[in-house]
Structures are given as C-alpha cells and as structure tokens.
C-alpha cells in the first residue's frame, strides 16, 4: 500500500490511465473487419511479442512450474480465449454500451462461484447489489430485444463472456499465490492465443492476407487495453486494495459508451441508460460491501 500522498497520487493516476486504456478495446474491435477469433489471437500473440525481451529473466521460474500448475494455466488460457471470442462477437450484434455494461457482472459471477465452491461469505448488501445488477441486465435484454433479436443474442454472448472471464480470474487468483505476474500473464496470453489459433485452423479462418489497417488494430489492442490496461491493473494489485482495483469495471462502460458516441456515432437509448445505471450501481454496492483482502 502507498505510504505517502505522492505515491498514492501516482498509483491513482495510473489507475485512471488503465481505465481509459481498457475502454478503447471495444472501439478497436469495431474498427476491424477481421473475424473476432483472429482479432483476439493476434491481440494476445502481439502482446507476448512485446513482453518477449523480459522472458529470459524469468526462465528459472518457468522451469519450477509443476504439472498441476501447467494444467491450471491451460484452463485459465482457454477461459480467456473463450471470453474474448464471446465478448468480441457480442460487439458485432449489440451496442458498445450494452456489451460493456453487462461485462461488469464479472465480479458478481466470481463471488457466486466462490460461494458455491468454497462457501465464501456473502453479506446482505452484496446480495442486494447482485439483485439490482441482475434486474438491470434483464431490462437491457428486454430493451434490446424490442429493438432487435440480434441485439439480445449479443447481450447473452457478453454475459457468457463475463462468466468465462470470471472463471479465468478465479484460476488466476489461485495461481498468482505462487507465481509472478509476468510469468502468469505471459503464459496465459500465449496459451489463450494458441487456443484461438487452433480454433481458427479448424474453422479454416485465414491467418494472413489482412490489410495494414487490420494489423494496426491488432497492435493497438495489444498495446493499449492489454498492456496499459489489464497488465497495469495486475501490477497495481501490489500497491492498491483489491476492491479498489476491482472498481475499474465500473469505469469501462461509461468511458467506452462516450467513446462509441464520439468515434462510432452510437447513441444511448433510454433502456440502456437506465438499465446501465442500475447495473453499475448494483455492482458498486457489491464491490463496496465485499470482503476486503
């Protein structure tokens, strides 16, 4: 934890930068016309390429990994790949606002799974927060269904993507007890990208032949939301409270919706605005009253 105001201010600034960075993810995906599985694959492979210069430094840690740890790393990578596949597909069917706000249900899914598997304590305010967030999700779904059946499918894909990343996060939390952030992230990114490569190979999706603009989008996704977003949050966990870092999920849909309005011309409907506020408030209550680590 930071011990002085200057350090705290630096970490808070980096936290804001991270929220802005991850908010660009949905915009970059919309800018690409490539298959979502290709976008996700190259996003992760290019992130690994950028991290490559530091790999040698951690070689001894990789050599000490046990078979069980590799099994959990593979499971975490597959779940991350599934998350990207489902969530990016949702952006082709529904709006940025609906897709990103539904993703904020991730910590709710994590707690529900923790309760079922480990009997983690859930207090009354957390249950109220879960209820409010779920009501908001139902309202978004009903509003989008009134507009388009495809939009509702997109909402469902985003929710399944949130469930997949929740499993990924639970596995990561367990693995990170005995593993550095670099080794965990590099391994999972590589395994997720390889899972997507196998998926593309089976489906016959081409690996090459994309325009320079597409490669630019792949690289932007690797640098901005991945390194300056997700990786930065993992690093900040060493200096900030976990609950505070978890609040980043509340900032992404707000900034992403504004960016979508500015850069994509998307407008918010009354359903999305009202339901989005309900979801964000419910998730805020849930995180605010959750157990502190």
TrEMBL record:
Compartment(s) where it occurs, according to its Swiss-Prot or TrEMBL record: Endomembrane system
Q: What is its main location?
A: membrane
Which organism is this protein's natural source?
Paenibacillus cellulosilyticus
User: One Pfam family for this entry, by name?
Assistant: EamA
Residue ranges constituting the EamA domain according to the UniProt record: 12-140, 153-287
Q: State the family it belongs to.
A: Belongs to the EamA transporter family.
Question: Is this entry keyworded Nuclease?
Answer: no
- The lineage's top-level taxon is Bacteria
Q: Does the keyword Transmembrane apply?
A: yes
Annotated protein name in UniProt: Drug/metabolite transporter (DMT)-like permease
What Gene Ontology terms describe where this protein resides (cellular component)?
membrane
Q: Where are the transmembrane segments?
A: 12-31, 37-58, 70-90, 96-118, 125-145, 151-171, 183-202, 214-233, 245-264, 270-287
Membrane topology note: Multi-pass membrane protein
Q: Which InterPro entries match?
A: EamA_dom, EmrE-like
Q: Which UniProt keywords apply?
A: Membrane, Transmembrane, Transmembrane helix
């Amino acid at each position: 934890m930071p011990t002085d105001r200057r350090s705290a201010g630096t970490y808070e600034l980096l936290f804001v930068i991270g929220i802005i960075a991850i908010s660009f993810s949905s915009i970059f995906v919309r800018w690409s016309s490539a298959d979502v599985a290709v976008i996700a694959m190259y996003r992760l492979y290019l992130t690994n390429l950028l991290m490559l210069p530091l790999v040698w430094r951690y070689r001894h840690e990789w050599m000490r990994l046990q078979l069980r740890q590799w099994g959990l790393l593979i499971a975490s990578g597959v779940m991350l790949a599934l998350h990207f596949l489902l969530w990016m597909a949702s952006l082709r069917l529904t709006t940025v606002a609906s897709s990103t706000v539904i993703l904020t249900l991730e910590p709710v899914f994590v707690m529900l799974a923790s309760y079922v598997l480990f009997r983690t304590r859930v207090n009354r305010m957390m249950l109220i927060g879960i209820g409010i967030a779920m009501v908001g999700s139902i309202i978004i779904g009903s509003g989008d269904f009134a507009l388009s059946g495809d939009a509702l499918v997109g909402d469902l894909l985003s929710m399944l993507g949130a469930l997949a990343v929740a499993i990924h996060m639970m596995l990561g939390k367990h693995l990170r007890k005995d593993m550095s952030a670099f080794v965990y992230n590099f391994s999972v990114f590589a395994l997720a990208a390889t899972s997507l490569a196998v998926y593309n190979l089976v489906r016959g999706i081409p690996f090459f032949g994309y325009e320079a603009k597409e490669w630019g989008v792949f690289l932007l996704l690797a640098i901005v939301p991945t390194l300056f977003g997700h990786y930065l949050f993992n690093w900040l966990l060493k200096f900030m409270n976990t609950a505070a870092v978890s609040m980043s999920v509340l900032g992404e849909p707000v900034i992403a919706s504004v960016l979508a309005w500015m850069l994509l011309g998307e407008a918010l409907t009354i359903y999305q605005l009202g339901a989005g506020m309900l979801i964000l408030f419910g998730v805020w209550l849930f995180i605010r009253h959750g157990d502190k680590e």
